Amino acid sequence: MNNLWNDKEAKEFIKDPLSLRIYTSRLLGRESALVLHGGGNTSVKVLEQNFFGEEDEILYIKGSGWDLETIEAAGFAPVKLDMLIKLAKLPILSDSDMVRLQRTAMTNPSAPNPSIEAILHAIIPFKYVDHTHADAIVTITNTPDGEKRIQDIFGPRILIVPYVMPGFILAQKIYEMTRDIDWSTLDGMVLMNHGFFTFHDDAKTSYDTMIMLVTEAEKYLEINNAVLTATSTEKQKEKLIQLAEIRQKISWIKGDATLACMDTTPESVQFSRLENLSDIATRGPLTPDHVIRTKPHPAIIQKDPQKDLTAFCKEYDNYFNRNTDGTLQQLNPSPCWAIWPDHGIISFGRTLKEASIISDIKDHTIEAIQIAEKLDRWQVLSEADLFQMEYWELEQAKLGKSITSPPLQGKIALVTGGASGIGRACVKLLKAQGAVVAALDINPGVTTTFKDKDIIGIACDLTDDEQVQKSVEAVVRKFGGLDILISNAGTFPPSESIEEMKSETWDKSIAINLTSHQRLLTACAPYLKRGIDSSVVMISSKNVIAPGPGAAAYSVAKSGQTQLARVAALELGSFGVTVNIIHPNSVFDTGIWTRDVLEKRAKHYGLTVEEYKANNILKREVTSNDVAEMACMMAGPVFTKTTGAQVPIDGGNIRVV
């Protein structure tokens, strides 16, 4: 394992002990083989003057909800050390009482809750304490002779602690074990099946020791030929319709729209093809902490995904009933990840971040499983121990808390013409309301327009059938399905009378303003039918109701698009898909309305530019965001019982009214 300490970087943090604590915490957080997504804990003990001028010993420990990789001073909770030591000496203490008492011992009430390992950090008599879930060490402990192997690697330099549930009982166990030991003889401490500690009065030495000892564990695995070699694996032809059906089933079980992110890397596909997959993949997680995010094990999808997912939920019910004491509230039985033999591994999440976290945990877990099998055998904690962690009182306490999600959380949307104007406004608003979004546009710049990970830009010529199909498939492959289609792309051809119209003007308008919408709808329909409360929103035009002279090519195409949407509403309604239409009038904050064009049109009507932009009954300008607001409303819960509707957004057009 690489040591990331950099003297030049470190100089920026040497001003005080907490700053150095921040620096080495970030070094640990940068290495995913040490900690994952909020895992691990670090602390530092300092002397601080209180309000009365007296010196208090304070333990600054990572606060709940903070990640080591990005932690700042505000992420550390300051707790009075003497109070924590007193708590360690109590004969019994519930974890909920421990959390409450730790909070009362804080010197800054606005700081986050201290880590549940605060008492444990307090009783380790060193200034700096580092706690990680090092893959190499935890993998070795997850074998039948794990304790002996740890002894063989490290000898008496390491204190080995049998697995104990995190929280007060773990701190109490270590307090009892270490009353009479000489801490100076120890380089670190292994918590079986859980994690690894190093400590020292110097921040760099504690960090260096962590890297050195983890490297020794990695070398032990290499010596014993327990390492993996990535191999190229030929993927089976993707079954994207089936993936959408899997995602739909998961969403139904969870009761909410859920993303299904498919990993088809060689590592995941190779793991999915292991002969003893159903055995080794279901023995348990890499660390008990992971069970809170991933459940004890993944689902295995075979020939009948619907049946397999139902069976997983039934077995989870049985698991709960076998272990509950009758006072616990059962969690949703849906799997958090699933292995699909020959295809890869799917991670589920209400948000892309949640699915990504589960995917990262999965990566480390499948690697550890295979390494442990090479070393000896993958053997984790008992079902009872995993259940105790999953149904920990601190986790149960969270269930009663009301959490409000954005209206489109977990939804998957596709927007055409997404690089600018109405399309771009729709993309941004869909994201703000919780959806993940694919923005399609003929402009290749769309691939770099959006920096958010929840938005992907895809360059696509919507008049090219192959590009359309590939783009839709890319969206399904990325997120697992499709729920929302905002068909917005269009063009406004030059004004030409019917008598003078060039054939290319007509053909181009029909191709872009009508045919491309039909091709896109054809490609999307199979996935929308397997979506969650799916909806189609067609961005049409007031020209459908009130055409103008010289706009035949545009008006006819938009009328055809509207009729296409009405038929789609009839055909897709039985599958629960709504199809609604918006008829905007001139939306002036789009590319076609340059300042020069606006001035010429305003002058033609004898108006100022501002008067021209609000030239409607309500005297209000219609913007791209106004149209996007309506489109998102049509894609959301308000319109789930409305289909085939045509709604103008024009400030009240006198020719329409």
Overall description:
- The structure is a single chain.
- With 657 residues, the protein is α/β, with parallel strands linked by helices.
- The protein folds into three domains: 7-223, 3-Layer(aba) Sandwich (L-fuculose-1-phosphate Aldolase); 240-325 and 332-397, Class II aldolase/adducin N-terminal domain (L-fuculose-1-phosphate Aldolase); 412-587 and 622-649, NAD(P)-binding Rossmann-like Domain (Rossmann fold), CATH 3.40.50.
- Helix content is 43%, strand content 14%.
- It is built from 25 helices and 18 strands.
- The strands form three sheets. The chain has a seven-stranded mixed beta sheet with strand order 3-2-1-4-7-6-5, sandwiched between helices. A seven-stranded parallel beta sheet has the order 14-13-12-15-16-17-18, sandwiched between helices. The chain has a four-stranded mixed beta sheet with strand order 8-11-10-9.
- β10 and β11 (344-349) form a beta hairpin.
- α6 crosses α15 (352-375), α20 runs parallel beside α21 (503-528) and α21 packs parallel to α22.
- The radius of gyration is 30 Å and the shape is elongated.
Tally of strands:
18
Helix content range of the residues, please? 40-55%
Spans of at least 5 consecutive residues with low confidence: none
CATH superfamily of the largest domain: Class II aldolase/adducin N-terminal domain
Percent of residues in beta strands?
5-15%
CATH C-level class of the largest domain: Alpha Beta
Fold-level CATH name of the largest domain: L-fuculose-1-phosphate Aldolase
